[in-house]
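Example complex used in Figure S2.
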Amino acid sequence: MNFGDLDLNTVWFILIGVLFTGYAMLDGFDLGVGALHLFTRTDEERRIMLNAIGPVWDGNEVWLVTGGGALFAAFPEVYATVFSGFYLAFVLLLVALIFRAVAIEFRSKQPMRWWRRMWDVGFSAGSVLSSFLIGVAMGNIAWGMPLDERHEFSGTFLGLLHPYALLLGVTTVALFMMHGAIYTAMKTEGDLQERVRGWINNCIIFFIICYAVTTMATLLYVPHMAARLRANPWLFSIALLNMLAIANIPREIHHRREGRAFLSSCVAMIALMGLFGLEMYPNLVLSHPFPEHSLNIVNAASSPRTLGIMLTIALIGVPIVLAYTVSIYWIFRGKVKLDRMSY
Amino acid sequence: MDALLLSRIQFAFTTAVHYIYPPLSIGLGVMLVLIEGMWLKTGNPLYHQMARFWTKVFALTFAIGVATGIVLEFEFGTNWSTYSRYVGDVFGSALAAEGIFAFFLESGFLAILLFGWDKVGRKMHFFATCMVCLGAHFSAIWIIVANSWMQTPAGFHIAGEGLAARAEITDFWAMVFNPSSVDRLFHTLCGAWQAGAFLVVSVSAWYLLKRRHEEFAQASLRLGLIVGLIAAGLQVVSGHQSAVGVAANQPAKLAAFEGRYTTRTNAPLALFGWVDEEAQAVRYSVELPGMLSWLVHGDTAGEVRGLEAFPPEDRPPVNVNFQLFHLMVGIGFALLGLSLVSTFHLWRGTLLRKRWLLGLLVLAVLGPQIANQAGWFAAEIGRQPWIVYGLLRTSEGLSKVVQAEMIVGSLILFGFVYLLLFAVFIYLLNDKIQHGPDAADLQPSGKLALPFGDRS
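Predicted assembly (799 residues):
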């Protein structure tokens, strides 16, 4: 199959990007809700928070699992290098995601205070840690990891925690908190919603500060992540779109149009991931200090035949997935009402 | 301990704990489809009550299955990255297909199954339950395809040389339908159906012994026992087919299962025993002469290859495999016998008076669990020393950059978390069982309470 000038490897670069962007947009608000969970006051409010994401978080996490599987199939060298290189970070991420998942399921199954508090903390800590580690991984991929000529990671765990990566970790937490707060405002009403609206403003301020610092740090210390933007000024339109989308959020919130605010937040995420992808392309993992050892869409890819087969699978599967994802969000639209089946 | 052993222990541990849950989800999924189907057909509110109760149990197993399963998806990369580089082109496709075709389907419709009771009509809810069940089966298909390719690789060629060599797909469908995938899928699914059915049977039998929720328990027991009996019967067929396949495709594995060292015709079948690996003989065993040859070839004159046909470095561990395999087979036949006797008494209407039989049925929930674990361990240990049979050794698949100390750390962490999850699972499951079905569920609410055809 051929898309004009696009070769299969580029198509898969884009598809992987789409899967991880889908993950950020969808599970991003679940993780954000988790990060905000402990700011609520009463047990009922916490249940509302959990049930706001109750029917959908599991499906949202599948975007990550499928993204991981697609990365394994399309770019096995990236999957192998990053996952073994980030060993301890990924183990922590997995444990965090486990706690996030089971806490949602377990929390409201028992009435005891200590039980609910334990899983509340597990849910919140798991969500914050997951978001942070995802950001740290992105930071390392952009900054460059020490890779040898066999594409094996040659650094240390602590080496992965350099300031730029930590900065991206915090920025990701801020982004997801903002996204999650907007989602919560969509799903709640009354007193709780009023307070959530206050959180949204704080989250936006938190995110914009992080975003500004990240942008400056990128321009100053990671110039290769801005090179394509400088060479092609029209790409600034994407950066502009991103800023307009973020600026639109407080406006929509002010007019009590939470749905539109949520869409703006999604557009901002797509623009951010788009910029990230454009600057990375054709590399998937940058090597630092030996750029020639970087993993790119050619040296990390599976065979053209496999990429073709996988594309067929994606073209059959993705429309079906989108169809019932939309249906399920439609069925569970509207404000959260607690009932017997709720968490 | 070195990184190889630690990585193997970690993978075995995380897989074994995970594998408690997916078979339950698959088997309970089938039970839920049957129960809701009966409700749609008869309109008897008892089936609605059953669907509600078993859905709650299903939700519990599903949540832990998802949480423990995500680890496995990433563990190939973290601990077995050399293997991942070698097989990604082939093996990765199956995992990605599992995500797209199975996980999205399962998790999407799970929302309706769990939370949609009052939001959608009966038929839509039944449809969602069917889709969750189908998704669980799709997941089994793709993961068994991936694992079977490691057992009997097909539809690929080796590209590149030396350290850069890797397997690449040449024929996708030959990879999917590799020589062992259909047999092993059927075998695994029969085990999963038994796991779900015998959980239902066990809980129901316990209620009957305690004289609680008797109407509910009788209806559940009947349905569970029928599914359990059918699955146990099919399991004998699928087990036989799998063993014939192993004899043809992985003769060293079959030889280890049976403790056969010498290649011979008229090979006997050991019912039990203890393999003395030093002396290369099976001790304390009762053997049926010629039976193994007959089972494999349909003819006692058929030749069965022994371990002597393989160099020592290509042989799997023998006694461990022998014991695991015989444990699995023994439990399989015991479950078949138990289902036959129980179904007979159910048909005669005498089951409720046979308290010893109800007691056995309460314990029967452990049968499929132990057999599934033993079977999975036998399949994987029997593949040793290969990670991909005949192509790549397990010792060659490790991540080169991961140190033993790091694996000790992750193993302790996973060990702690998984044991905690298991304890909470047992605690909540017990709590659910003690609480029993809700009397209020005999009265469907919301849209479900509407008569058929009325969608307003």
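Chain B has two domains: 1-180+407-449, 200-249+251-382. Chain B is about 70% helix and 5% strand.
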